[in-house]
Amino acid sequence: MKLSKKTCAFAFVLGLSLLLVSNAGAAPMLADSLADYSLVQGQGGWYYGYYMPETGMDFYLMDVGGEDWLGAEAWVVDEETSWAMIMGDSVHAHGPQASRGSEPGTVLSTRRWVSDVEGLVEIEGLLAKCGVSGGDGVEGLIMVDGATIWQQEIAFNDTAGAGFSLLVPLQVGTAIDFALGPRGNSGYDTSLFGSRISLIGSEDPQAPERPSGAIPEPATLSLLGIGGLALLARRKLTKRH
């Protein structure tokens, strides 16, 4: 059994609102992963992609798909072989030898936001389970230009989840990744991983125009916090949850 999309969206809005209510209006909002969600790569500074840590830490873009079996379009890796996907209100990772086709290895479903400002920002949000009928939980990572600054495991039935509030100095072009990975398997891994990014201080009050062109890549990629995900167990899924 899985929670409906409406239930997931409601839980996300409620949980994140409660988490951030004390800071409401305190700083200019730069990005909101829920409100900014789009089926256009780069819109609002957001890119939808994935990592395959067992073969390297290159960032790949997802494709739009999923309408037939998800009931709506979403970002997917490969609808025939992978469970990795990003939806407006939730995310799903992919584990080795899952039942959906033959996609090898672990896939970290990742929302990336690329900064168009220079200054200090606060990254706030919530990681919580949406599918709670089984599985063994998920692991969330937040990386800035490839370096892990936050890492958290969430139990399979933890709908309250874990909140985060991080102060990070940014340059124009800094990439912030919100990556979801499986633990021992990717059963029932549908999760909420929402974030908001607010400007705390900046030397330049006017953000420069976002450059168009090549997909931004982190300057230096780090494997910190990734090693454990490369050794995930290989339990076969029978259905998506």
Task: Describe this structure as you would to a colleague.
By secondary structure, the protein is mainly β. The protein has one domain (5-231). The chain contains 2 helices and 14 strands. The protein has a 6-stranded antiparallel sheet with strand order 3-2-8-13-10-11, with no helix packed on it. A 4-stranded antiparallel sheet has the order 1-14-9-12. A hairpin with an 8-residue loop joins β2 (46-51) and β3 (60-61). The termini are close together. Mean pLDDT is 78; it is low at 1-7, 16-24 and 207-240.
Give the helix/strand layout.
Layout: H1 5-20, E1 29-32, E2 46-51, E3 60-61, E4 63-65, H2 67-70, E5 74-76, E6 85-86, E7 91-92, E8 108-114, E9 119-129, E10 138-144, E11 147-154, E12 162-170, E13 175-182, E14 191-201
Antiparallel strand pairs: 1-14, 2-3, 2-8, 4-5, 5-6, 6-7, 8-13, 9-12, 9-14, 10-11, 10-13
